[in-house]
Design brief:
Shape: elongated
Oligomer: single chain
Radius of gyration: 21 Å
Structural class: alpha/beta
Distance between the termini: 37 Å
Order of helices and strands: HEEEEEEEEEH
C-alpha cells in the first residue's frame, strides 16, 4: 500500500522533470536589426529561421526600430530569410547557433522587389557581443582525453 502512494507521487514528478529538461534545450536566440542601405530602420520585416536538418521553422517580425528577436532555438545550423515590402529578399545560410547562445545578425536590405534575392554564406566565426555568457564547446576527442577518476 505504501509503495503504491510513492508510485503515484513519483510518476508525475518524473514527467515534470523530463519536460523541464526538454524545455531547457531550446534556450538560444538570434537577434539583430533590419535596416535599409541608408541605415534607416525597416519596421514590419518578416524574419524566418529554418533548420534544414529538421525542417523546423521559427518566425519573427521587426518592430518600429527594426529590431527583431527569435527565441527558443535549439543548437543547429539555420538558414535566415528576411523579406519586406519594397526591398529585395535577404537570404543567409549557415547561421550557426550553439547552446545558450545569443547570435546577432544585422541585415541591410537593398531597395528592390521581393522577387530579387541577396544570398550571403556565413562561414566565419563571430564574437558574441549581445550576452555576457562565456562558454566553450567540448568535442569528443577532448572528452576521451580526460584522465580517469579514482573510485571512492
Amino acid at each position: 500500500m505504501r509503495q503504491a502512494r510513492y508510485r503515484f507521487f513519483l510518476l508525475p514528478l518524473f514527467f515534470v522533470l523530463a519536460c523541464v529538461g526538454l524545455y531547457a534545450q531550446a534556450n538560444s536566440e538570434v537577434t539583430g536589426t533590419v535596416t535599409d542601405q541608408t541605415g534607416a530602420s525597416v519596421p514590419g520585416a518578416k524574419i524566418t529561421l529554418t533548420d534544414p536538418a529538421t525542417g523546423s521553422v521559427h518566425t519573427s517580425t521587426s518592430n518600429d526600430s527594426g529590431l527583431y528577436d527569435v527565441v527558443g532555438l535549439n543548437a543547429a545550423v539555420y538558414n535566415l530569410k528576411v523579406t519586406a515590402k519594397g526591398f529585395q529578399t535577404y537570404v543567409q545560410s549557415g547561421v550557426v547557433v550553439n547552446i545558450s547562445q545569443t547570435f546577432r545578425v544585422d541585415v541591410k536590405l537593398p531597395i528592390g522587389t521581393e522577387s530579387q534575392t541577396i544570398t550571403v554564406e556565413a562561414d566565419a566565426l563571430t564574437v558574441q557581443s549581445d550576452s555576457n555568457v562565456v562558454s566553450t564547446l567540448i568535442n569528443e576527442q577532448q572528452i576521451t582525453d580526460l584522465p580517469p577518476t579514482a573510485a571512492a
